[in-house]
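Example 3.2
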Amino acid sequence: MSTGSTDARRVTTHTLQEMKAAGVPIAMLTAYDYSLARLVDSAGIDVILVGDSASNVMAGHETTLPITLDQMIYHASAVVRGCQRALIVVDLPFGTYQGNSKGALNSAIRIMKESGAHAVKLEGGREVIGSVERILTAGIPVMGHLGLTPQSIYKFGTYVVRAKEEAEAARLREDAKLLEEAGCFALVLEKIPATLAAEVARSVSIPIIGIGAGGGVDGQVLVLHDMLGINKEFNPRFLRRYADLHTVVSDAVAGYVRDVRAKDFPSPKEQY
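Structure, written as tokens:
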């Protein structure tokens, strides 16, 4: 079982199952490019999600909806080239799997063949079971995603906590079971009450990865640019910043500009 940066063996879906059974928390982060993926992988991360959050943090869109399948494959291919250990999961973008299981399968096959990733992730419960089952027929591992599902932002109208009311919580419990029974190897639960997330984690045999879902689940995921402090505007309660790269990078660039203006860079030692 791979649980630390000293173990270079590839993390697999089976590894995650072993980690859940052993009570070893799973660490998951997003990445979208070769350089940062290489750093994240070498630091011992278990799972890298090539998230459709690239639409926000890499392309500057307001939502995750605009990013295309071709763009996701581009980002995933770069991440794969930077990794030796982590399990790499790629989001199926909006419009590539909803309501069309054949289209979902074709999208998943393209991601696997063209990027070299190890699994795909899609949002939703009973409404996407057909797509989940169709993708699994090709032997492609599928990670589910329940709770706050950002691709449905215009349906929700807000990013507030989901499943606080019993009716929605009951539906989430049922959907988690349905996705497990369909064959998903893991689920992401986003921005739901911690007690509900812990209940779901106990009720299913597959790993539950939380984001804003408390500590009673089997692992955690954050967006890399958020936890590194590159993005200063996003401040949800669940986010812990482990660095302040916004200040580090801004100060470094300002220093470079200052040295160039003063003709201090390059110095005699920095030229040929």
